From TrEMBL:
Chain positions with N6-(pyridoxal phosphate)lysine modification: K182
Family classification: Belongs to the DegT/DnrJ/EryC1 family. L-glutamine:2-deoxy-scyllo-inosose/scyllo-inosose aminotransferase subfamily.
UniProt KW keywords: Aminotransferase, Pyridoxal phosphate, Transferase
GO molecular function, one term: transaminase activity
InterPro entries linked: DegT/StrS_aminotransferase, PyrdxlP-dep_Trfase, PyrdxlP-dep_Trfase_major, PyrdxlP-dep_Trfase_small
Family matches, as PANTHER family: DTDP-4-AMINO-4,6-DIDEOXYGALACTOSE TRANSAMINASE (PTHR30244:SF34), TRANSAMINASE (PTHR30244)
Protein name as annotated: UDP-4-amino-4-deoxy-L-arabinose--oxoglutarate aminotransferase
Cofactor: pyridoxal 5'-phosphate
A GO biological process held by the record: polysaccharide biosynthetic process
Organism: Streptomyces formicae
Catalytic site positions: K182
Length: 383
């Protein structure tokens, strides 16, 4: 099976884990702090602004929790988003308000965001679809002008930039995911960024049970009664650990090569499918705007809705796994969007298919996927 995603780990990561085993310190410790510092440098910010967590989802929940939402408060987010984003809003006491997206990029524009704002909007939670930054510069300007918190779900965008500025640093909060299907993998893990260092410090406390100070051996160096507790607010256990941080540090060093290969695969797909786009209604991802770089997390094609599902099933039967991400959340009854109509999101949801994209693919794999896609699309269009 040619898979959609596949983690790229090897001897370097194994060696890093072995060092952690040898140290006999597996939990949150020096390697966690080193990974936070390295990732902060990657973002061009100080280390006090980032917190390593056990998942990107934990980052979403902590960011929303920082808003201290009350009943009736709203958070605007694009409908094609991962379910964790809406779950974080609901769990944080807010109401998710879904906005439309450009049907080709699956990213919202500033106009899409603005159309969904009300006097109860407390935050905007924007996804960078497939690693493309989207209209983040204008969205950030809109949020600043309206005094609305901007949260960036940058799970797909660990190496994306606009004019050299890393995606994730345009808003007030951002998070990245390092689960087994992402560009950088730790097995599970995530990073939270907060523009305000006090907000980052609060998130760090909440990520470890709300404790104002750590308990245990480290605190024993500065307190004669290190077992006593100070819990100013209730938290959870969302912290990362040295095992996953050690893997993450290696993956961060390898990030340029991983993204370079993703870009090569994307460009190969573009070449392989160019004539098919001319001969049929199949569309490939639009080009990036000037000054934008992508992490190339998804490669998506769009086709007539009456053949999309059949194409996906024929490719699966041929040993090629595809999918559509992300299903529109305004269609999920649990989020209470009712009969909301979002034409761009619905157009994309009916037509889009994500193809395999990861550095483990060789050129022959890409040719195989493109050829199978071509065969299926052409046959189904002429049935």
């Amino acid at each position: 099976m040619i898979h959609l995603h596949q983690p790229q780990v090897g001897q370097e990561e194994l060696a890093a884990v072995a060092e952690v085993f040898d140290s006999k310190w597996l939990g949150h410790g020096p390697r966690t702090e080193a990974f936070e510092a390295a990732f902060a440098e990657h973002l061009q910010v100080d280390a006090e602004h980032v917190v390593f967590l056990n998942s990107g989802t934990a980052g979403l929940f902590l960011a929303v929790e920082s808003l201290d939402l009350t009943e009736g408060d709203e958070v605007v987010l694009p409908s094609p988003s991962f379910v964790a984003a809406a779950n974080a809003v609901v769990a944080g006491g807010g109401r998710p308000v879904f906005c439309d997206v450009d049907p080709r990029t699956l990213n919202p524009t500033a106009e899409h965001i603005e159309a969904a704002l009300t006097d109860r909007t407390r935050a905007v939670l924007v996804l960078h679809y497939g690693g493309s930054p989207g209209d983040i510069t204008r969205i950030a300007e809109l949020c600043r002008h309206r005094d609305i918190t901007l949260i960036e779900d940058a799970a797909c965008s660990v190496a994306s930039t606009v004019d050299g500025r890393p995606v994730g640093t345009f808003g007030d909060f951002a998070m990245w995911s390092f689960d087994a299907m992402k560009v950088m993998v730790c097995g599970d893990g995530g990073m939270l960024y907060a523009r305000d260092p006090d907000a980052a410090a609060r998130a760090r406390r909440l990520a470890y049970h709300g404790l104002a100070q750590p308990t245990g051996f480290g605190y024993a160096q500065v307190s004669s009664r290190w077992w006593e507790l100070d819990v100013p607010e209730v938290g959870r256990r969302d912290i990362g650990n040295d095992l996953t941080a050690a893997i993450g540090a290696v993956q961060l060093r390898r990030l340029p090569e991983l993204v370079a290969r993703r870009r090569e695969i994307t460009e190969l797909y573009d070449r392989e499918l160019a004539d098919l786009a001319d001969l049929s209604d199949l569309l490939t991802p639009p080009p990036l705007p000037a000054g934008h770089t992508s992490t190339y997390y998804f490669y998506w094609v769009q086709m007539p809705p009456d053949i999309r599902d059949d194409v996906a099933n024929e490719l699966r039967a041929a040993g090629i796994y595809t999918t559509f991400r992300y299903a529109p959340l305004h269609k999920v009854p649990a989020y209470g969007a009712g009969e909301l109509s979002l034409p761009g999101a619905e157009h994309a949801a009916d037509r889009t298919l994500c193809l395999p994209l990861h550095p483990g693919l060789d050129d022959a794999d890409v040719h195989t996927v493109a050829a199978a896609l071509r065969k299926s699309v052409e046959a189904l269009l002429h049935r």
